[in-house]
Amino acid sequence: MLLPISPIIASILVMLFPLVASVLQAMLGKKAISGNMALIAILGSTIISLFGVFLPVWNSTSLQQKWEWFTIGDHTLHVGILVNNLTALMQLVVCVIALPVHIYSRAYMKGDSGIHRYWMYLSLFCFAMLGLTVSLNLLQLYIFWELVGFASYLLIGFWFTKETAAQANKKAFLINRIGDLGFLIGIALVYAHCGTLDLATLFNQTGFFKDIDIGLISSIDKNATWVTFAGLAFFLGAMAKSAQFPLHVWLPDAMEGPTSVSSLIHAATMVAAGVFLLCTVFPLFNETVLLIIVIIGTLTALSGALFALGQYDIKKVLAFSTISQLGFMMVGVGIGAWDAAMFHLTTHAFFKCLLFLCAGALIHEMTHWKAKAQLDFDPKDLRHMGGLRRFMPKTFICMVIASLSLAGFPSTSGYLSKDSIVITAYEWASHLGGAYVLIPILLIIISILTAFYIGRLILKVFFGSFKYRSHIKTIKFHEAPKAMLIPMVFLAAASLFPLFGLSLADYHSSWIMQTLDANTIYPTQAQAHLFIPALLTGGAILGWLVGWSWYVKKKYPLSENNRLVHFANKQGYLNEFNESIFVKGTLELSRILYIFDQYMVDGITKFFSWFVRGLSAAVYWFDKYIVDGLVNSFAQATYYIGHLVRHVQNGQLQGYLGFALTIVILGILYLIIT
Amino acid sequence: MTIESLLFYAFACMAIVSALLLVNIRNTARALFLLFIVLFAMAGLYLFALADFIAITQILVYVGGVLILLIFAFMLSNKELLNDLQSTSKHFISLPNWQALVLAFAFLGVMVYSYISWSQHMPQWIAQSEAKGSIILPTDNNIKALGFKFMTQYVLPFEIISVFLMMALIGAAHVSRKEDDI
Amino acid sequence: MGLLSILIFLPLVATLLILAIPSSAKATYKYIALCFTLLQFGISLYLYGNFDAKLGGIEQMDAYQYVEQLAWIRMDLGTVGKLEIDYFIGIDGISLPLIVLSTLVMLMSVGASWNIDKSPKGYFALLMILNMAVMGVFSALDFFLFYVFYEVMLLPLYFLIGIWGGARREYAAIKFFIYTLLGSVLMLLVIVGLYFSVINPATGAHTFNMLHMMNPANYVDGSFFAHITNYHEVFGIPARLIGFIVLFFAFAIKVPIVPLHTWLPDAHVEAPTPVSIILAGVLLKVGGYGIIRVCYSIFPDIAANTNWWLALIGVISIVYGALNALAQKDLKRMIAYSSVSHMGFVLLGIASLTAEGLAGAMFQMVSHGFLSAALFFLVGVLYDRVHDRYIYNFRGLASLMPKYTAYVAIAFFASLGLPGFSAFIGEAFVIIGAFNAESMSTGIPRWMAVGGSIGILLSAAYFLWTLQRMFFGQTRLQGGQAWQEALTDLNTREQVVLFPTVALALLLGIMPSLVFGNLNASVIQLIDLIKPYL
Amino acid sequence: MISLTHFLVVSACIFCIGLYAVLAKRNTIMILVGIELMINAAILNFVAFGKYDKINYGGQVFALFAIVLAAASVAVGLALILNVYRHFKTINPQDIHELKD
Predict the structure, then answer these.
(1) Is the CB of residue A654 less than 8 Å away from at least one CB of chain D?
(2) Alpha carbon distance D84, A656 (integer Å)
(3) Hey, which of A40, B100, C205, C514 has its CA 20 to 30 A from A637?
(4) What CATH number does residue D57 fall under?
(5) Where is the chain membrane-spanning (chain D) (predicted)?
């Protein structure tokens, strides 16, 4: 025990610090714009998380505590804290990533008019994310799950006056909603069949790590239809959150948010929550679901890498890279190597966060320089950069380290974790045989593609020549400020292998893998540990050489209007497809339904009222003209006769005479006839 | 066809046509002159009924008195009628008032029908007087016979009608006097 | 005079007081109304505080609390028997949350009525009569008394919409009136039928007592609605089924379900803000309450057989209402359709016949009660300022009215079921209950639950779309500079009205036991009542 | 020898024309003229039938009476017309339909 409090209390504190900071920030509003509260809170959280939760729990014990929440019917739901290896690791990763991002944000967001909101939202996100990691109850987890989505919504739309940002956060939330529905359905299915949502009751309090047979879940038939459906439902939730194909479309758009936010939420932590969820409920998955996870994961990795190739927006390249890497993690879960997935999640969190922070630094400086030089261009566009290594050498080094890690270059953390997934996938495929081999082959290709697109990014940004070189002499191009560099350097250090294990090449000896041992059923294949890393590294170097000749030496073989490039740049026209099919379809349906409602449903009402009014009018007509008409016609006949006679009595001599003579004639005629 | 009947038809036609014109003409002055023709034609017709004295009287009294009176009354009565005189040139013949027309035709029909049916069964006194030969002949001295009758058989009605005529004339004069004279 | 009676008849005192005070002192009316509603709210909180959560209620007379029973009408009808109408009130776990909700919503609506200047005397008098009727409906246990309150509720609403409403107020008022009257007239027939079928075991006379109607033993053998020995059929349909359908129809109009909902958008759009608040906050709940208290409790056998259809109607209402809301351009109409969608959850939850579903439905009613009230109030705020509600006429309000935007955003997110807010608990448990129904074999297939959950997605779509369209982006207003000046941020009064609802939404979202605790026993009791017929 | 019927038909024609004038004319003087026509038609009848009454000479005597009466009636009639015109400023019988002043 490093701290005199139990890990449970410690993890509650870890959660509460950011919440308190967020509430305080909300109450103070514009009076507190320094962000000190948020920083102190996350610092406290990090320290407590490391010393109060992670170190006592890691590889030694797992704890849970619950409090009654409410009773519904015969079931009582609890809220609680579950601390085991998985949750403690996840919590620590979130804290450790969040801390540098907070420091970085102080410089990056300086001077923004809404900065008080920024700190409030960021703290809210940290609270939700940290709460998500240690939730005991699935419903509780779901609540935090949506809350992180909400915080992400707020942060994506931070610059809400920008139309694209307002569109992007709506899109992000809606697509996440689809996943949330899946999650909710999964919860409902589990509740309906197991009667509890308690993770400890369901999967044993250590999660499933060592004793997979103890939890309640072991007593159910894993091949039941509902298990498949529940697994798919949970996976749907994870798909949306972790931006899996085809629900990944929100993530590139989410880059509308501040870059610091992108690095924390949309690269390192929140998007990884899907993977974390799958690891949490892993025992629930049966073969079918796992296979689907693998396929979707591979598809995601492939499409992400392909789309990343065609992007010009630096953040979008990184966003697709994130999608691609999340696909790797999904494959890891799908092949049963969730330990590798978690490992990759951790390493990815560091180097991807770093990549984003570096990109943020670049954008930050580009924007400043642009403002000073009074030029108008998109500061995020790769085509406007080039040769920046001379002006921002430190950023360059950090970014290169992160890129090497992403590409899986030996001696970086990425090398360890990515190889662990690819090699395990190979083992898995060779165990199963047949068409399963496609998966590792695809993964290798994707890895090489990864190396290529990140190489493209580095080469385009830092090598070659700056597009606006003529201006550079008069207006100096600065290195990023210290407050931004320090977190970057820290993360760069964390992206190298020593943090995760002393062995430079053997991922098995990494402490994460040692503790989170997934007990995969298929045999290890020694030769894979040799040729796959060699293949990957060789492929990466080859890719960089090609990239060098293409992007630095300007021997680019493809035209910019190449259809493939367009396809990748437009993200495979998925957005357009969604827009025209789902969005337009739903809107059209709603419009049609409203017309239906107005004219048919309400029309029936109106028809009835029309009918009743018509009927009453008819009855009134009958009454007026038939019933009353009989009475009136008597009166009228009398009146007419009177009127007729009155005509004779009109005081006109000729009239009198004519009338008299008429009567005479009639009399004579009568006489003649008789 | 004898000359007598030809003349009769001519007079009859003249009377009827003039009368028709008389009622249909708009111009009152012309109508009054047409009345003059009608009265003459009627006097002619009386001759065919062997009433020479009546015919003479008709011309004297009507044409010489009544008609002159009418014309004078018309001339004296108003400038509205004179206006009417001027404005009538457009419509030489006025549109008939259809109720009156119907009534008039009805009467005509009834009368003609009754005459025709009646001519089959003449009243007895006509047959008797024909049989006795007590019908007026063209050779008879009507004026003398009338004089006798007025002075003998019809003396009382004659006197009454004389007084009546005087009363009427005095009354007419009284009625038509200027009101200021009272 | 018990506390419950005081709660019911306090507004009547307020009405008399308002009528007695001459019009020259019309400024006092709103303070009188406020005082009395505050007092009512206090009483309801007291009732809530002293409520024994262990007692179930439903058909057990001694499990009701704050019961008052007085002979009201006793008439010897000779051969027909004795007419027995009681003044019989009491509350159980089903009515308690709704009574507390009603007093709160009434308080809100008085707060929203602060600027009424068109004949305030009549307005507040009618509002208070409405208040009395609502309290009466939620606590009456004699069917005749229930019906009286139910009808009394209509009249003030008709006038409130018809006199203080918008441009097409007469149309809307008449539509509303005819629709609800249609339901209640049919209900009267069934009430009479039930009266002649049920006898009070103590006196042997026919009775209107609802609790006696819930006990199968009290039915006269061979009577029209008799439980076991029933040979009566109307057009080949069993009499009890007819009775159930007619009662359901009456309450379904109130809920409202698709396709009996068309009065709602019109009434809401034309009604003044406070009346919209009451309509959405309380009136719709009368429908849900009636289905639970009357349809399900008196006809449990039919309820068990028809729940598939009810759930289907619920799902259709959810999806249909949500899609219609998506097509709206008038903010108020959109919220009105969202009410249809959200009340569909209530029906789905009730029809699921599981404890989770029923409790979720009750929770949803409570949550929707003050959230929709808050939403309508927020629309009213905008309408007060510029007399326009057309969504396309606004843009970028967030820069102009930050506080207002914050409240709108919170209310929207709370309504779309963001966890941490009350609507989430209601909707989630309705969905969970509907899923659970298959395990409990109550006959609700799971695709209905999935269909219902699509409603949650759609509700996010229309709320977020509105938020993005009206509040985000660069400020651009239809009315130009004039609007820009007119659109001031929320004032203190408005914040005082809004803050409690938002706080309550958050509180109930975090501590749902505040509601679940009291109604759980009643829900279990109701399930036990229906279970034998499943 | 002209038959009696001839006279009667001609007198009927004249009578009807006079009748029409009396009923249809919008001028009191023309009405008076119509009356004269009718009287003349009557006189023609008197005269025609009088041919068969040689003993009393009734036809011709009464024809004379009738002529005298007609003259008197015209005199009185015209006097009335003038008076009426002075009073009503019109001689259209249709405008003269009030007995009171």
Answers:
(1) yes
(2) 19
(3) B100
(4) 1.10.287.3510
(5) 6-23, 30-49, 61-85
Residue A481 has pLDDT above 50, yes or no: yes
| Locus of tokens 């360059």 | A396
Q: What is the pLDDT of residue A210?
A: 42
**pTM of the prediction?**
0.75
Residue A564 has pLDDT above 80, yes or no: no
pLDDT tens sequence across C80-99: 677 778 888 888 888 888 99
CA distance C404 to C407: 5
Same domain, C265 and C334: no
Does the CB of D94 have a partner CB in chain A at under 8 Å? yes
Confidence class for position B88, pLDDT limits 50, 70, 90: very low
Q: Across the interface, do A167 and C460 touch by the CB < 8 Å criterion? A: no
Nearest 5°: CA angle at C339, between C337 and C340?
Answer: 65
CB-closest option in B15, B38, B157 to D65: B157
CB-based contact C103:C44 (threshold 8 Å): yes
Asked whether residue D84 is assigned to any structural domain, the reply reads: yes
Q: Which domains does chain B have, with CATH numbers?
A: 1-95 (1.20.120.1200)
Please give the average per-residue pLDDT across B39-53, as a whole number: 88
Radius of gyration of chain C (CA): 23
Query: What is the total count of domains within chain C?
Result: 2
- B177 DSSP assignment: S
What domain range includes position C483? 304-534
Asked if D97 lies within 8 A of A652 by C-beta distance, the reply is yes
Among chain A residues, CA nearest to D96: A652
- Please answer yes or no on whether B23 and D21 come within 8 Å at the CB atom: yes
Q: By the CB < 8 Å criterion, does B122 face chain A?
A: no
| DSSP secondary structure letters along A27-78 | HHGGG--S-HHHHHHHHHHHHIIIIIIIHHHTTT--EEEEEEEEEETTEEEE
- A654 and D97: CB-CB below 8 Å? no
Task: Give the structural domain span for A660.
Answer: 578-673
Is residue A440 reached through a cis peptide bond, with omega within 30 degrees of 0 on the bond before it? no
Sole residue written with tokens 């569909």 = C344
Report the phi/psi class of residue A651: left, alpha or beta, with left for phi > 0 and alpha for psi in -120 to 50: left
Q: What is the predicted pLDDT for the residue at D42?
A: 92
Nearest to D23 among A650, A651, A658 (CB): A658
The segment with the largest mean pLDDT, out of A642-646, C128-132, C509-513, is C128-132
How close does chain A come to B107, measured CA to CA in Å? 7
Q: What is the ipTM of this complex?
A: 0.65
Q: Which H or E run includes C319?
A: helix C300-326
Q: Note the pLDDT of residue D41.
A: 92
Same domain, A219 and A127: yes
Residue type at A653? L
**Residues C469-508: tens digit of each pLDDT:** 888 888 888 777 888 887 888 888 888 888 888 888 888 8
Task: Indicate if C311 and C202 belong to the same structural domain.
Answer: no
Averaged pLDDT, A343-360: 85
Domain membership flag for residue D101:
no
Residue type (1 letter), A448: I
B107 and A665 within 8 Å at the Cβ level: the answer is yes
Q: Subunits that touch chain B (at least 3 Cβ pairs < 8 angstroms)? A: A, D
Chain A residue closest in CA terms to B101: A658
